[in-house]
Amino acid sequence: MNGTTFSGNLPTTELTRWRLKTEDGRQTWHYLRTDEEVAAWPQSVADKYHLGLPTDLPALATPGTPLDAARNGLSFFSKLQLSEGQWACEYGGPMFLLPANMIAYFVTNSEIPEEWRIEIQRYLAARANPEDGGWGLHIEGESTVFGTALNYAVLRIVGMSPDHPVCVKARKTLHALGGALQSPLWGKVMLSLMGCYGWEGVNPIPPELWLLPNWVPFHPWRWWVHNRQVFLAMSYLYSLKKARPVDDITIALRKELYVESYDSIDFSLHRNTIAPKDIYHPHTKVLDALNAILAVWGKWVCPSKLQEIARDHVYKLIKLEDENSDYCCLGPVNNPLNFVARYFTEGESHAVNMHRETIKDFLWMKNEGMLANGTDGVQCWDTSFLIQSVIECGFGEDPQYRDVLIKALQFLDAQQIREEPKEKDFCYRQQRKGAWPFSKRAQGYTVCDTTAEGLKSVLLLQSVPGMPKLISDERLLDSVEVLLTMQNANGGFASYELIRAGEWLESLNAAEVFGRIMVEYPYPECSTATIMGLQQFIKTHPNHPRRTKIENVVRRTVQYIKKAQEQDGSWYGSWGICFTYATMFATEALKSTGETYENSATMRKAVEFLLSKQRDDGGWGESYKSCETGVYTEHRETQVVNTAWAVIALMNAGYKERGPIEKGVKLIMQRQQPNGEWLQEGIEGVFNKSCMISYPNYKFTFTIKALGIYARIFGNEVS
Ligand code: LAN
Predict the structure, then answer these.
(1) What is the pTM of this model?
(2) Residues 6+ apart with CB under 8 A from 160
(3) In sequence order, what DSSP letters do the residues of 11-38 get, joined into one string?
(4) Please, what are the domains in the chain?
(5) pLDDT at 3
(6) How far is the CA of 89 from the centre of ligand 1 (A)?
(7) Which residues pair with 93 in a beta bridge?
(8) Residues lining ligand 1, CB < 6 A?
(9) Which of 49, 147, 288, 488 has the greatest CB tally within 10 Å of its CB?
(10) Where does the signal peptide begin and end (predicted)?
């Protein structure tokens, strides 16, 4: 193939032929095969940067002040803005997403382009754990059966020989872990779809649950939306029990993935066989008992007519999820599962083709090869943060940033969700008209903090003199109304929806590898963002009739946040690593209602906590282990992103001692490169306690924000 060369013992494509395209927020990577195409579509700085190619951006004048450093950072980061006004980045980390997507391509007989095959092999080879050649739940995790069995299968699907050293090493580790029989539930399902595991060895995922009346306290409509949508598609597939027809490759995989001979395995005995290394959330006795009952129910009791009715009902919900998200779906697991569900039911169809396309929205190309992102991009989220950072620096009116900001505003204008989902109540959706999604409008899901950060950013920008007013008050109010529907009884805000059931449902958590996946929880991060958005609205619309309501909401939220403080003065972060992340948010919420180091014990405790974790070099560095264990754990190295969060938190708290804050700011400045960029350090984000995910743009947005706030509070100088 054009441009293919060899690097080490694996082929590689020519990185200079890759381009990131953006169309109405949809981001996809393209490989240009001919020289004419290459000439007609030059590689942008952003393309080069994301591919790890030299950007040749010049060294800038050495910054003497924090704001000089912020300007240098912006000079670099603004070159990464895409033509539609947003920022993109690798959003990898989880190691089960490429398998979910590639197995779907495989099962649906979709052609996997040659350039993907090459680059996926490279990525998985680069990301195999150096000691044992396996893969874990996420890129920094130890090898597990889930990670190793599935990624091994991907390598074989995309054409790697079983004799290749990468496969040999991974297989050895997989076998040492007990082989694919030890896979957790999601692994068992994916392997079953491929024809490499027996459906009878999968714990029950009954679609009949969807027929229960809505008042039933464990009805799936009450589950956290990610778990619910994955369960939806899985329950349909489980009920069909279909698999890809067996052929040479699956016969080979049946041999390679197992320690035992495949034909000798009685899968029905292995529903609960899971490698200890894989388990984060062990089964409860209740779950085991329920599984035993449901297994009998599914096999002997449930009338086939009822199964059919349940399947039809679930299929209707699957179709609505597809249509309400333009076939992107909520995320990178339910999209491929819906894809397979539709393929098994309809064969080749419009829907199947649409899924074949939208899988591309999740794929990302980088110097190490091709991976799957955690979402179809970070468009709205990171764009909002960039806007806020520029404003914090006081650069809103600076002509130098005008174009960048106008384009960012245009992006948020285009990506605001403008209508409710089709059959909203039937498919149990939260109100969304006026919301900003995490990624792009088509995906169509509100998250309270993505909406709030979008709202706040638009309000800030549209208040800058001379900035166009693209988003009307009516549309801003729509987003306020969405947020107002999302406060929970305890005052906190969750992620996508209201909390619909209690934590006790976690006793039915069957995913084994994740914690806190069954229901929504209130989060200090999401709660803070929400009230900051709402308060910004009141600042710009002081006489609005919603004022009293908003003030009440804010008061109750702050009470919740205070209650959520840990003994040591920190807050546990569920979406960023970890205590430094949430403490930055929580202190911002408290500050917004007038609490300071001087007048609030809560703030003083927060400051004590932060200061106790500052390192000798002036920075902070938190390991992802904090998220897993709930105990602050030091990273090997000081992290520029944790440092920015901690410094912002101290300034939120109104801590007046310049010393420690200045030391943090100086570390941020020292780590900046001559061209204005910061280099990638440890992974920044997390979900479900156990799975890490990268937020590479945080090293720009939060550092710049920290520099800006510092200059405003302490003056634009460091000693
Ligand atoms: C995200 C990414 C963004 C994140 C924030 C907005 C930062 C957060 O404050 C609220 C929750 C949210 C929207 C979030 C939820 C879970 C996601 C979608 C992810 C961490 C990105 C990937 C993850 C998703 C669940 C991955 C697929 C895995 C499953 C268990 C289905």
Answers:
(1) 0.96
(2) 121, 166, 167
(3) EE--GGGEEEEEETTEEEEEE--SHHHH
(4) 96-338 (1.50.10.20), 378-564 (1.50.10.20), 565-718 (1.50.10.20)
(5) 65
(6) 15
(7) none
(8) 226, 230, 331-333, 374-375, 438, 447, 449-450, 495, 514, 525-526, 575, 687-688, 693
(9) 147
(10) none
